[in-house]
What we know:
Number of helices: 17
Number of strands: 11
Strand content: 5-15%
Distance between the termini: 81 Å
CATH topology of the largest domain: Rossmann fold
Shape: elongated
CATH class of the largest domain: Alpha Beta
Number of domains: 3
CATH superfamily of the largest domain: P-loop containing nucleotide triphosphate hydrolases
Largest sheet: 8 strands, mixed
Radius of gyration: 37 Å
CATH architecture of the largest domain: 3-Layer(aba) Sandwich
Amino acid sequence: MKHRIHTFRAATxxxxxxxxxxxxxxxxIVVESKEIATRRLLPWPAIRQExxxxxxxxxxxxxxAKKDRDQKVLSAAPRTIQTLAEKMxxxxxxxETNIAQAVEASDGSVQNNNVLAAxxxxxxxxxxxxxxxxxxxxxxxxxxxxxxxTPPAVEPMTSAAVDFPSPALEPQIASLQLMLSxxxxxxxxxxxxxxxxxxxxxxxxxxxxxxxxxxxxxLISRVRRxxxxxxxxxxxxxxxxxxxxxxxxxxxxxxxxxxxxxxxxVTLVGPTGVGKTTTLAKLAGHFALREGRRIGIITIDxxxxxxxxxxxxxxxxxxxxxxxxxxxxxxxxAIDDLADVDMILIDTAGKSPSDGSKLNELRExxxxxxxDHILLVLSLAGGASMLQNIAAxxxxxxxxxxxxxxxxxxxxxxxxxxxxxxISIPISYVTTGQDVPAQFEPANAARLARLCLGLDxx
Length: 458
């Protein structure tokens, strides 16, 4: 007697062979095995690689009862092992409905507990056919199969009949995806029970702008204490008050304003790679070209390759005098050489915040320079999380203000509020690009607040 060839699918070869052994016995003959790509509704990703094994029962005599049992478990679709993610993807309501239908169809009895179920009938086309309705009635009961009283007709298996949903199901798929998206949003909002509904939109805007959650909650709390429920145009009023609160938190200092007849000395300090030299060139260009001041430049950055040449090029373009110094003694001499200028800008070498000896050298240089303004230059490109520690490392050099660079490299400017809260040093300037002397502006609390909230652009 010629034996029927059965097809099985599973995630791995071992699982597929286990299906073969369960269905056809230990001596079953594997006819063919191959790897196929199957397409699923849920969970994502929609396409998964599976193993398909074709096998037939070995020639042996069987009792009539055994043959009857084997006949009952035949199905046109291949047997598959359902993954845990697929089991969990069904909603509880659908699962309960399926269980109830299956128990009713089987008169409350469960048979053949060791056989894994074929895909439910609603995944196959021709959902109005009698065989599809039969498959729809007999669902999985969490790993067990309810065997129909009359076996369904055996139909040729095609990959389209199993793997791909009918086009008529596309609206249902879209609805399921929308439902899952809404569930994710609701789960996220479940931890915001302390924020009233009328303020929730503003809270989400604050966090989307890059403001830390604790600061966003604090802002909402402050606005709630001041806002009257009867306020006209409530949404706009809340936004205006949030902007005012952020502006109040921004600690800014007036830009440098040289006094006629008095020479100002400005020294730039900070870690490596934050843009000190470019910032120095922008300051020099601003005061020389826009304010008509006589500027002198001194560089003591002898560590970075090409640093002196870079400063010299800027000085030549701006047509301002430039000096170099290798130590405190040479620095004093260079300052004396520039006695007839309105302002001296000193570029120092970048110092690692963890290198105590280099920071001590910097303090000695600043003592000799007797600077009127010590600008601590910090880059926002890496985020605000480390800036507090860096600023603490440079506190012994007594910086008078901050210069925040590379705002143009930020996706959002919400970290400005973190800097204002974490660092007590006021902000004097910000830079928004590499162009010299452009893309440089004095710090303004209102402007920084609007940038922080995403209301202004760089």
